[in-house]
Fold:
Amino acid sequence: MVYLKGCPLSCAWCHNPEGLAPRPETACDGRKCIHCRRCVELCPNGCISPAGDTLVIDRSRCEGCLRCVENCPSGAMTGYGRTMTVEQTLEQILKDQAYFRATGGGVTVSGGECLLYPAFVAQLLRRCRELGVHTLVESAFHVPYSAIQTVAPYTDQFYVDIKHMDPQIHRQYTGQSNRRILENLEALSRDGGRILPRIPVIPGENDSRENLLATADFGRSLGAENIMLLKYNALASGKYRMLGKSFRDFSRDAVDIPTLCQTLNQALGKEGFFICT
Ligand code: SF4
Ligand code: SF4
Ligand code: SF4
Structure:
């Protein structure tokens, strides 16, 4: 997996808070910190200040040098993201080439929103294709269609998350309407892209039968063979804490995803249309 940082959406349930800012970031796990203050002294920009039992990081001044991470004696400091070229990224991917050959697996480029960087992704996937590595892009598609067109010639499959079919509710939860996302899906479908729509199922928020069946209708209009339901992931709470961000937990009424798939497929009269991992 290759994760590119930066995202134009702000989903209330985002499980990748470290993927939202378009730059390297550091985060501190206060439970591991032994208060040696080495990071405070080493930071060239004076971004880190002690505050009682914890540390405050002024990320607006952080240049991502990762000195604080590399010199932390307790492993409390973590770095999210680093600047890499296409060739450096490819070198990392190719370490798994034997595994790809044995399993038929390949590279997935995700985020954040990887299509904020279409030229980088296109170059990377073109090189992967040349080397016989399968290519998959995971995206929310809230990008100009030209970004999708740039990567499509080198992408074997797109996984695209549809968070809600109602534009107002979509805006309420993600900060943006779904109009551009749905239009991009329609355009890529017309242009022959291979798409697997996915729905991150958020208990009590987008899991109504009405919304899920409306998504199925839309998916079928695209010619999609399946829609994948994704289980809500509450494991991101630790990353929110380390990044000093507040976490909203949506796991109160857990949904059994295989049962939900079965119920929806019965309603559609189409076995195996909704699938889960
Ligand atoms: S990454 Fe560098 S600039 Fe950023 S907080 Fe750490 S030491 Fe300071
Ligand atoms: S270097 Fe590590 S252990 Fe020392 S104060 Fe910073 S985060 Fe805590
Ligand atoms: S699109 Fe993905 S990375 Fe971006 S905010 Fe939503 S869940 Fe997070």
About this structure: The pocket of iron/sulfur cluster (ligand 2) is lined by residues 28, 33-39, 72-74, 76-77 (CB under 6 Å).
